[in-house]
Write a structure and sequence with these properties.
The complex is a heterotrimer of chains A (279), B (317) and C (368). With 279 residues, chain A is mostly helical. Helix content of chain A is 75%, strand content 1%. In chain A, α1 crosses α13, α4 runs antiparallel to α10 and α8 runs parallel beside α13. Classes of the chains: A mainly alpha (279), B mainly alpha (317), C alpha+beta (368).
Chain lengths: 279, 317, 368
């Protein structure tokens, strides 16, 4: 390819990148300005690309009802609880699969755990609903979703942790044994620190998936516990959808995942590259 | 030591216990997670498998008087036009959603990596492009539904202003509504394949590129001969991740179109959801779930086998 | 008495790697195991360390049977070929690791680590991370970690194989001088025979399945039990010539194939070898026992044959000459003063009384 041709391709690709950025940002921009419009303005026949009046109070009015704020708290409890559970379980299983593949069940078990991501939600929803109904924690509780979300978060955590553990050289653990550490102490002193960045990226992924979940929450909880994802659609005035408030709330709810990603992006990239490339 | 001379102890050797960790430890480590997963997944799976062969619905479930109907549910599902249509929709989604996302993601990732030199700019652009992934799919659905409102949606207005169309596009008519969903999904999730390929590119060994530079190769040649082949596996994994999700796809359909109008934007998982949760035809929904899972499992296994073969030929796997 | 005893040790995976191996290393003895790569030297160390489980056999240190003990309970310390330093800990913490395992108090740990660091001359590196130091320094850190543990047996797995020649030399000196290693039974593994000959009180040559010969350096070098041992020690490698023993009556000859290569076997050797008349043997001649004669020079007591030069390498301290003598390729060591051209005719003087005779099937030394 000629020098000219190469430059042309480069320019085209940069233009494409720019175009994509615009396309990415436009809905977010729309979300942003809608959040500050009045309800009337959002329903105009011809939509405005800039709010006529900036209704900053929309943000506050979202929390006028305290229960909306509680929804964020509920989401937080569930996401964090599930992340911890998924991480712990995933680490245990991941370590076993990485270090003792045969005794831990081998390739088949590992694949089966992973394949659970392929089940359509309904396969889990109906039976689990009846199961939880019979359990002390019921369906409408934090614990219910914390456990339920394990269905998709735990296999992910297991798979990624397995890859990270495989990456940690076994020799270092062996050196620790010879230093006099029992397997447990060796794990804590040597293996865990090595695997910590990976754990962070796993935690981040699990947390974001749990935070953003809608379908299961919609069906299982609603009275005692409400996540923000099921609260947002309730912002209606009769039959009219209050787009502005919905957008406002969703913007607020977007902050934690975005903050997490910005803070932990290095771990994310490192985690993904290890997890994907070596997995 | 010749072959014939195999010592006795070797013939009778057994795999002794590992001294370092007792034999029960690996089983215990895996045991707890597997137990949990068992309870959470195996129980529903078994439940579904069982009820797929029954004529269960909500009422019969409560009364406990469902009965065995053999393959009836399966026949209903496989024979229904509704299911057949949804499969076509799924294929449409796979091609223009899934594959497109992977291609777009790859192009974006590599363009970002190769063409944007300044570190801070790369990070900034990365963060921006990842933002859509941070929104719940349900919210993404709502947002796009809002923007695609035919009469006064932002998209139509923008298209009009830019002169790209002459009249409002009817995004939620039959035949078009599926595209609306696809557009929303592409917007939502392209960042994931992009991140995966980007991470893969980051971790490629620099030595190969230096050698290429010494050889005088650059630009497109390097991309075609070095980068892309080395990223084959990564791109395949990005594809598998989105592919698996495609079979579970419900949120956007539920929020944006409810499968409509007239079931023209239904996807298999959504129908299963409808039939099971809304219409309480639980046995049928179970059959749906099994069929969907079977199809996806078979396809993925085939794809993995093919992938392994390709990679083995290249000497990687 | 911290003597290490190994009896009937067996380990195999797809095939037997270690087959009924017996070995005793006395307290304070520096025992070197030398052998080709992949033969099982590291496996042996790992079995002693407890990182592998033996299929059969017994390992004891002093009067303690450690065969069934997990590695963290065995009184051994090991350096790994890859050093296995903890990357997230400083050099100080790496060395202190065994002491922390025993929960020693901080002051005692600091004293012990400093002492060892000074001994190994790495005290300036104590705050650095393994990623920041050189190969030789890593190796010394790894060594420090084992020294500080004060085990009853030291296991050193190819500790200096991956370092460049100068540092290797330096560290070899250090191994000589480190008292600790001489106070306790030490097992040192290497594939470099000159290291083995230099460091070992005793040497074990490892072949398929176990130790082929054990003895002092001199013994193993001068009286190899098999062709394998002879071939493995010495550089350039020994010349191994397929031949047969012939001759009538009191007259015994060696003849190699159809070539003119051959010489009489005299004296005591003839007596010892008379039973091998008409047998096929492998004749082993070390390159240093082949002298390249200059014009007019003579070599009494040697058997002279004619040949021409195939390859000549001038290696500074000496030269390596490969000559074709009657169809047989022979390697000889020469003094560096003369150069040889390809094809040049040479006269080689073989020191026939230093020649080894090995059974061509079993490889056993016929004169032992």
């Amino acid at each position: 390819m000629s020098e000219q041709g190469a430059r042309l391709v480069r320019i085209l690709l940069l233009m494409f990148l720019g175009l994509w950025l615009i396309l990415t940002l436009f809905p977010l921009y729309w979300q942003f300005i809608t959040a500050f419009k009045s309800a009337a303005e959002t329903n105009r026949t011809i939509p405005t690309f800039w709010p006529e009046v900036w209704h900053f109070e929309n943000l506050a009015s979202v929390f006028a009802e305290k229960s909306n704020f509680n929804a964020l708290v509920d989401s937080f409890i569930i996401a964090t609880g599930n992340t911890l559970a998924s991480l712990v379980l995933g680490t245990l299983a991941g370590y076993a699969f990485a270090r003792f593949p045969r005794q831990a069940g081998g390739e088949n078990l590992a694949f089966w755990i992973l394949s659970n991501r392929m089940f359509p939600p309904v396969a889990v929803l109906v039976p689990m609903f009846f199961l939880f109904d019979a359990m002390p924690w019921g369906t409408d509780s934090h614990l219910s979703l914390i456990i339920l979300y394990l269905v998709f978060n735990m296999p992910l955590a297991t798979w990624l942790m397995m890859v990270f553990f495989r990456d940690a050289p076994r020799e270092l653990e062996e050196a620790a044994y010879l230093d006099g550490y029992t397997p447990l102490r060796a794990f804590v002193k040597v293996t865990l620190p090595l695997v910590l960045p990976g754990m962070i990226s796993v935690a981040m992924l699990c947390w974001i998936f749990a935070w953003n979940e809608y379908l299961f929450a919609n069906l299982f909880v609603g009275t005692q516990v409400r996540t923000f994802t099921i609260v947002i659609p309730t912002f209606t005035h009769g039959s009219q959808t209050l787009w502005n408030l919905q957008m406002a709330f969703s913007m607020i709810a977007m902050l934690p995942p975005v903050a997490l990603f910005i803070l932990l992006r290095r771990y994310m990239v490192r985690g993904l590259s290890l997890g994907v490339v070596k997995g | 030591m010749s072959v014939a001379h195999v010592p006795d102890w070797f013939v009778h050797k057994k795999v002794r216990d590992n001294l370092i960790v007792a034999r029960w430890v690996p089983a215990a480590l895996v045991g707890l997670p597997v137990l949990v997963l068992f309870a959470i997944v195996v129980y529903p799976t078994v439940w579904m498998f069982y009820h797929a062969f029954q004529n269960t619905n909500m009422m019969r479930l409560f009364q406990g008087n469902w009965s065995f109907v053999g393959l009836d549910n399966f026949r209903t599902v496989l024979g229904s036009e509704r299911f057949g249509d949804s499969v076509l929709h799924l294929i449409q989604y796979l091609l223009f959603g899934c594959v497109l996302q992977v291609i777009l993601g790859t192009v974006l990732a590599l363009s970002l990596y190769e063409l944007v030199r300044k570190e801070w700019l790369r990070v900034l652009l990365l963060i921006v492009m990842v933002l859509p992934m941070m929104l719940p799919p349900s919210i993404v659905g709502v947002l796009w539904k809002f923007m695609l409102t035919p009469s006064n949606g932002a998209v139509n207005q923008a298209l009009l202003n830019l002169g790209l169309v002459r009249a409002h596009v009817e995004w939620f008519n039959a035949g078009v509504s599926l595209w609306a969903i696809i557009i929303a999904d592409v917007w939502n999730w392209t960042a994931l394949p992009m991140l995966i390929v980007y991470s893969g590119r980051v971790s490629l060994p620099p030595a190969v590129y230096e050698a290429a530079r010494v050889d005088g190769a650059k630009g497109w040649l390097v991309m075609r001969r070095i980068t892309l082949p080395m990223l084959k596996e990564v791109i395949a994994i990005a594809f598998i991740v989105r592919f698996m999700d495609a079979f579970k796809f419900v949120d956007l359909v539920y929020v944006m179109t409810s499968g409509g109008p007239a079931q023209s934007s239904e996807l298999p998982a959504y129908i299963a959801f409808q039939r099971g949760i809304r219409e309480f035809a639980i046995g049928e929904a179970a059959a749906y779930a099994i069929i969907i899972f079977a199809i996806s499992a078979i396809l993925i296994t085939l794809f993995l086998k093919y992938l392994k073969k390709v990679l083995k030929a290249q000497g990687i796997a | 008495m911290a003597r290490m005893q190994i009896e009937g040790l067996c380990k195999g995976w797809d095939f037997p790697v270690i087959d009924r191996l017996d070995l005793t290393v006395e307290e304070g003895e520096f025992f070197v195991i030398v052998g080709p790569s992949g033969i099982g030297k590291t496996t042996l160390l790992r079995l002693i360390a407890g990182l592998e489980t033996a299929n059969a056999g017994r390992i004891a240190i002093g009067d303690q049977d450690i065969t069934a003990l997990p590695p963290y309970k065995r009184p051994v310390a090991m350096t790994f070929e890859s050093y296995a330093l903890y990357p997230h800990l400083s050099v100080f913490e790496n060395i202190a690791s065994p002491l922390r395992a025993r929960r020693m108090d901080t002051a005692a740990i600091r004293a012990a680590v400093n002492e060892v660091a000074e001994l190994l001359r790495i005290e300036a590196l104590l705050d650095s991370r393994p990623g920041e130091i050189s190969g030789g320094q890593k190796q010394r850190t790894a060594l420090g970690r084992t020294l500080v543990a004060k085990p009853r047996v030291f296991l050193l797995d190819e500790p200096i194989s991956h370092l460049d020649a100068k540092i290797r030399h330096e560290l070899r000196q250090q191994f000589h001088s480190l008292e600790e290693l001489r106070r306790v039974a030490t097992l040192y593994v290497t594939h470099d025979y000159s290291e083995a000959l230099s460091l070992g009180d005793r040497i074990g040559v490892m072949g398929r399945g176990g130790l082929v010969q054990v003895g002092s350096a001199r013994e193993v070098f001068m009286r190899p039990r098999t062709l394998f041992v002879a071939e493995h020690l010495g550089q350039p490698a020994i010349n191994a010539v397929a031949a047969h023993i012939g001759g009538e009556g009191a007259d015994l000859h060696v003849r190699a194939g159809n070539s003119g290569f051959g010489f009489p076997i005299g004296g005591t050797r003839a007596a010892a070898l008379s039973g091998a008349r008409h047998a096929r043997v492998t004749v082993g001649i070390r390159p240093q026992h082949i002298k390249v004669l200059r014009n007019g020079e003579d070599a009494p007591g040697h058997h002279v044959i004619e040949g021409h030069v195939e390859i000549y390498e001038a290696l500074g301290a000496n030269g390596v000459l490969v000559a074709d003598a009657g169809g047989i390729s022979l390697t000889a060591l020469t003094s560096p003063e003369h150069a040889f051209a390809h094809g040049q005719p040479v006269r080689l003087a073989l020191r026939t009384d230093a020649v080894f005779y090995f059974d061509s099937e079993t490889g056993d030394n016929l004169l032992l």
